[in-house]
Amino acid sequence: MEAGSILVFINPDDLEKHLLVDQFKIDEHTLHSSLDPDELSRLEFEPNHLAIIYKRPKSYSGKEKLLFRVSSAGLFLFQDKLVILLSEDIPLFDGKQFSRVSSLPDVLLRLVYRSVFHFLEHLKIINMLTDELESQINESMDNKKLLHLFTLGKSLVYYVNSINSNSLLVEKLKYNATKLGFTPEEIEFVDDLMIENTQCLKQAEIYSNILASLMDARASIVGNNLNVLMKTLNIIIIIIMVPTFVVSAFSMNVPHPLSSNPWAFWHILGLALFSMLLIVLMWRKKKW
Asked: Above 60 in pLDDT, residue 122?
């Protein structure tokens, strides 16, 4: 790799921000945009450096309750150094993408490619979680599972917007390849990066569309499961109520035909059981 230094700033404090603005001449607005999760990807040409803001998945935490978020990162390419701004401490140079780099622009491109690969990894996880939740919703009436599904749908919307924003950034890198001084190998890598990001975008859109189309169906399944439960409970209540009425009628403190019959208890019990059996047979015959 050609000589050059790589400086990484993770969630810089005020002193480090002043250093970046005063010494490295980084635009203050661009610096803050690099740490803003709602900022769109973009490329800017400054007098002494190139400024890039790109989107990447935020590290997932169990506290997020299946909500996958995105964050922004800043890359500032100088003649002899590359400054990286991150909002959180994450592994940057892991993976085979960094097994062989030739220059600072090459490192910059591979960092953007690493974010695409990171998005793909999260999409696989989201798809697995979606399949698991769908199977649970089919057998459950708990709204919690359905809310988790809505949360994953919200995450996919964030991912589609972020990946699409990165697509525009990669296109600008390709169109300005000559101005940026990319080598033929780096231009070829940009082409590969564009293809990978496009495939990632299409995959995210497919997952998002499928999940959105299934939302109403899954909500209907939960409602149908609840209706089936209420129907079963009503049948059980009716089966219990009829023999209860029979027993209550013969328990009134008034004369009745079985008052002096020594077998009255068994007759009443048999009549109650017969009424219960009659209701069960009617239920089966009418297929309630």
From this structure: yes
